[in-house]
Design a protein that fits this description.
- The protein is an alpha+beta fold.
- The chain folds into two domains: 60 residues; 60 residues, no CATH class.
- Helices cover 43% and strands 29% of the residues.
- The chain is built from three helices and four strands.
- The chain has a four-stranded antiparallel beta sheet with strand order 1-2-3-4.
- Helix 2 packs across helix 3.
- It is flat.
Length: 136
């Protein structure tokens, strides 16, 4: 027999006729897919997870590094690999370029974008864990 789970909730705070908080969520699980809809004021986010996605989420071990630190590390790795490939190509040319010590440097815009992305991803992951009732 297939499982079916439905859950929803609303949180509305009104003070002196002014709406201070207006949040809601709705989750539907049909045994194969989990559909999550979260609304905060007028912004709605929808997430669809398969059985495989849910299993991976539940099996993911806690990390000692924050999401931001992991993303910055991945960016540094990809810059280093790109730089190494460029250096190998440049060795064959007559005009060699000097390698910079310490690897590739990020611009301020790249760092800012990474930080914004990391915060948004971390917020979404925390919201998803709250909706699924997963404690860290």
């Amino acid at each position: 027999m297939p499982s079916y789970i439905y859950s929803s909730g609303i949180n509305k705070v009104i003070s002196n006729g002014k709406v201070l908080e207006d949040k809601s969520y709705e989750m539907k699980y049909d045994g194969k897919e989990l559909d999550i809809k979260k609304t905060n004021k007028n912004k709605t986010k929808k997430i669809k997870l398969t059985e495989k996605d849910i299993a991976q989420l539940l099996q993911t071990p806690p990390e000692s590094l924050s999401l931001e630190e992991r993303l910055v590390g991945e960016l540094n790795k990809s810059h280093s690999k790109h730089k190494t490939k460029q250096n190998k190509k440049n060795k064959n040319k007559k005009n060699k370029t000097k390698k910079s010590k310490g690897g590739a440097k990020k611009t301020k815009d790249e760092s800012k974008n990474i930080n914004v992305l990391a915060r948004k991803l971390d917020e979404n992951l925390q919201e998803l864990k709250k909706l699924l009732g997963i404690n860290k």
